[in-house]
Amino acid sequence: MSTETVKITRLGTQGHGIAEGAQGPIYVPYALPGETVAIARNGGHGTLISITETSTDRIAPLCRHFDPDRDACGGCSLQHLADAPYRAFKRDLVIEALRSRGLTPEVGALIAAHPGERRRVVLSARKTEKDFLIGFNRAETNHIVSIEECPIASQGIMARLGAIRAIGQALATGSETFRITVLETLSGLDLAADGLKPLSDKQRRTVTETVLSLKGIARVSVNGEVVIEPQKPVIDFGGVKVAPPPGAFTQATKPAEDAMAELVLSHVGKAKRVLDLFAGSGTFALRLARTAKVHAAEGEEKPLKALEHAARNTQGLKPVTIEKRDLFRRPMMVQELKNYDAVVFDPPRAGAEAQVKELARSTVKTVAAVSCNPATLARDLRTLVDGGYRIKSVTPIDQFLWSPHVEAVALLER
């Protein structure tokens, strides 16, 4: 490891400052373009020691845990970057991903995220000899930084951090690290722990007693199995109430979800038959069912059952049918797609490569692509464009504030 002074020229896709070294780029977390910094260099990685020339875009971070000189939480990587260049950075991630595939559509302004909006956070937890740690991992390590505040998380979650900690302590027996996904629902917090060994009867009693002594906890589950459910967790998809299964995927913020849904619904318009692929618990399907017949396909059974139950128990919806289907291995084929006026797909980070190959050969008029990964979105859009679709718009959406992650909604027509 050597110590040297370098000039930061740009931000990388992970939010690290990049200096151009003789043997290639050097990635320096917490450094910004235009800064001259002293680093301890280990190959292509630099640890920030001091700043001799500071960027005008550098601002004071909001959170006490965002401090590279101390025990820095790895939940955020860009709290030190001013708002305008931060938004430009996120929008550029989408633009550059599309450009790498030869696509140059107009990319709209970033729909911004704000502090206190995150209704879903994933915490790391571990019992030690002296303490119980719960928080986020330090960047690029397995070391847990136990948090006392988190400006990105909702007030409903932060106000119950003590309760989450107490339940985590009741769940922990050995020293293994486990995760607790916390979702704020209309009826209280839904805590889904995973990475733990099966609970003993004594542990179950302890967890149950702990939860019943607290307020604002709707459900606690371990490895997908419900331990206690004082209240049915309920979330709202455009006026339709849904009880998601333990640990089910939901968009991390309600404002981002609403923005995505507004874009999708306005694009689908007056379509009478809509196919929702990778439908989850019904984020889009249940909203679409206000005006169209919807067929929802999803690889996991429990979210589909939650979607179906919500559709059956909500008045005013058009018919909603469901299908459990692994769309990676068995995508909807051209002959099946001809039955629909519009298709919406919202896949995991891997994208929908097999499915879009079939879509590209189809006669579906309208497609809405929702993505959490600009690289796989660009790949999938390239396939659709080569198949005869035109990109009408691409809108980047931020819901993972001060991180390098960005969502996007692309609207296409044949």
TrEMBL record:
Keyword Metal-binding in record: yes
UniProt keyword annotations, A-Z: 4Fe-4S, Iron, Iron-sulfur, Metal-binding, Methyltransferase, S-adenosyl-L-methionine, Transferase
Protein's name according to its UniProt entry: Class I SAM-dependent RNA methyltransferase
InterPro entries: MeTrfase_TrmA_AS, NA-bd_OB-fold, SAM-dependent_MTases_sf, U5_MeTrfase_fam
Coiled coil start-end: none
Entry annotated with the keyword Flavoprotein: no
Record-listed E.C. numbers: 2.1.1.-
BP terms from Gene Ontology: methylation
EC category: transferase
Annotated positions binding S-adenosyl-L-methionine: 251, 278, 298, 346
Organism: Neorhizobium phenanthreniclasticum
Similarity comment: family membership: Belongs to the class I-like SAM-binding methyltransferase superfamily. RNA M5U methyltransferase family.
GO molecular-function term, one example from the UniProt record: methyltransferase activity
